[in-house]
Amino acid sequence: MRAAVSLWLLWTLLPGTVSAAATTPTDPLRSPNWAAMVERHLNGGPVVFDERVQVRMPQTAEDPMSVPVEAVVEGLENIQEMRLIADLNPLPLILIFRPTHADPFIAFRFKVEQSTPVRAAARTADGVWHVGGAWLTASGGGCTAPSYGSGSGLWRDQLNQVSAALWPRGEDASRLKLRVMHPMDTGLAAGIPVFHVESLSVEDASGRELAKIRTYEPVSENPVLSLNLHYRGVVDVRGRDIQGNRIRARVAP
Amino acid sequence: MIRFNSWGLALGLMLLAAVRAGAETSFDYGLEPQAVADGVHVLLGRTEHFTRENGGNIVNTGFIVTDDGVVVIDTGPSRRYGEQMRAAIARSTGQPVRQVYLTHAHPDHFLGSQAFVDVPVAALAGTRHSIRTRGDALNSNLYRLVGGWMAGTEAVVPAQVVEDSTVMIGGRSLRLIALNGHTTSDLAVFDEQSATLFAGDLVFFDRAATTPDADIDQWLHSLERLRAIDFKVLVPGHGPVLRDAAGIEQTRAYLGWLAGALRKAARNGMDLNEAMRAPLPPEFAKIAVIKEEFERSVIHLYPEYELETLAPVSR
């Protein structure tokens, strides 16, 4: 028994283990998948865990098809890009957000298959990913269930239709909330191929990019997204889904 | 000395764990029918969430003794509950069960029906439809929440459909009142002889209302209908039995506030998580599990309010 303990101690002190821990800081959420997430979805790092990056959501998924989440960065300047990742989802990457002329803030809903850490990674100009996150408890099934739209066939008439509104926030800022009608099928439900919105960009009247979003399979059906733009006035929304269907909308305050 | 104390603590904790495990594995709900009016009894559940400790017994069920057997209102959260309820009825009345009414298709109210398969079990048509289409999913979900208490439980589709009507059973006149709002179909049962109103989950008292299938406007309308009934005893679906309308008033006040808060948040462009952070008025602070249920309600209801504020803008 004592020999086994010593062997275990020796194993944990092996040089290989120590050097791996030095390049990737210890994950505060202790996820078995974190190293793979850094490799696959954060270009291998560098990564720091940073409390200024926050994921806000309920602790438990009331509806695994639609978990409300907010990713917020407070007190960090020059955020180039934000990525939302659920380590233990079969398709972990949820969304990429470029807040060109917008707050480093995005709110939306996503699908979850089982309990998982949910991360927001914010890349600063020096290339470092600042990561915050939280555990979400879920009973699952959100990713492998068909969308309601695919079940009913109703979506065909309304595919990529946008509903939206702008709320002015001060002199030169506004909240944009928009919904795109789309089944957002993950491809994991039997017999229903993957089909989701791929990109959305928000531009001002002169065509200047205010924000750009890439959406992936886990974003909920008929996505509703909230952004805080550094701009007040009419905005254009342009996007497409993975079959090349266009999304076009103009939103006036 | 310190070592001795920590060992003592560890031993104590182990014993405590063993006692708790023992209490759970006996799966005894400890059902004690309480007489609330002449021939009318209620089995009071706890004002909690579903847990592995309470086995799903967070619900009020009841029964009415007539000259021709016992009328049961709701069968509880599990097969075990239904069986223990039926045993408790036999113990306290010595009468056979003659009829069962289910108030609505939520798992804590109908999953005990296996204990009554030899008796007519009746529900509104919408309730029957919901149990048929969603009963298995609700059963497995409750199993996940409360564990072994649910062993052997299966959803039973009620064989009998009732409508808004008055029935006479063993000399007692029972008004079956078809309402909706908490779910698509909510049955209230009024015993005219004792003026006891079984409100089902249209009324919660000192336990926060749940809204996974709710339509608040319809629910408020149904509460108006219940308010107009001249009852002496009010049995809410969750929370203590009342001699006045306090449960109706509290449920109405909370739902009214909830709808107003969500509408206001949506009109201000709030995201769902932001709407969830709305402060709860102090008047609701004493209601059990209010914060958790409010957050769940935002998830259930907010998308509809939000859509009202978004206009079609496709080009």
Features:
heterodimer, A: mainly beta, Immunoglobulin-like, 9-stranded mixed beta sheet, 39% strand, globular, disordered N terminus, B: 7-stranded mixed beta sheet
What's the arrangement of secondary structure elements?
The complex is a heterodimer of chains A (253) and B (315).
Chain A: H1 2-12, H2 15-23, H3 34-41, E1 47-49, E2 53-56, E3 67-73, E4 79-86, E5 93-98, E6 105-110, E7 116-124, E8 129-136, H4 148-152, H5 155-158, E9 162-168, E10 174-180, E11 197-204, E12 209-215, E13 224-229, E14 235-241, E15 246-251
Parallel strand pairs in A: 1-8
Antiparallel strand pairs in A: 2-3, 3-6, 4-5, 4-7, 5-12, 7-8, 9-10, 10-13, 11-12, 11-14, 14-15
Chain B: H1 2-25, E1 34-37, E2 40-43, E3 61-66, E4 69-73, H2 79-93, E5 97-101, H3 107-110, E6 121-123, H4 125-146, E7 160-161, E8 165-169, E9 172-179, E10 186-191, E11 196-204, H5 216-227, E12 233-238, H6 246-267, H7 272-276, H8 290-307, E13 311-312
Parallel strand pairs in B: 4-5, 5-6, 6-7, 11-12
Antiparallel strand pairs in B: 1-2, 2-3, 3-4, 8-9, 9-10, 10-11
Helix pairs in contact in B: 5-6, 6-8
Structure explained in plain terms:
- The complex is a heterodimer of chains A (253) and B (315).
- Helices cover 15% and strands 39% of the residues of chain A.
- Chain A is mainly beta and 253 residues long.
- Chain A has one domain (27-251): Sandwich (Immunoglobulin-like).
- In chain A, the strands form 3 sheets. A 9-stranded mixed β-sheet of chain A has the order 1-8-7-4-5-12-11-14-15, with helices on one face. A 3-stranded antiparallel β-sheet of chain A has the order 2-3-6, with no helix packed on it. A 3-stranded antiparallel β-sheet of chain A has the order 9-10-13, with no helix packed on it.
- In chain A, β4 and β5 (93-98) form a beta hairpin.
- Chain A starts with a helix and ends with a strand.
- With 315 residues, chain B is an alpha/beta fold.
- Chain B has helices spanning 2-25, 79-93, 107-110, 125-146, 216-227, 246-267, 272-276, 290-307; strands at 34-37, 40-43, 61-66, 69-73, 97-101, 121-123, 160-161, 165-169, 172-179, 186-191, 196-204, 233-238, 311-312.
- Chain B has a 7-stranded mixed β-sheet with strand order 1-2-3-4-5-6-7. In chain B, strands 8-9-10-11-12 form a 5-stranded mixed β-sheet.
- In chain B, a hairpin with a 2-residue loop joins β1 and β2.
- In chain B, α5 (216-227) packs antiparallel against α6.
- Chain B is globular, with a radius of gyration of 21 Å.
- Mean pLDDT of chain B is 93; it is low at 1-7.
- Chains A and B meet through β3, β9, β10 and β15 of A and α7, α8 and β13 of B.
- β9 (162-168) of chain A pairs antiparallel with β13 (311-312) of chain B.
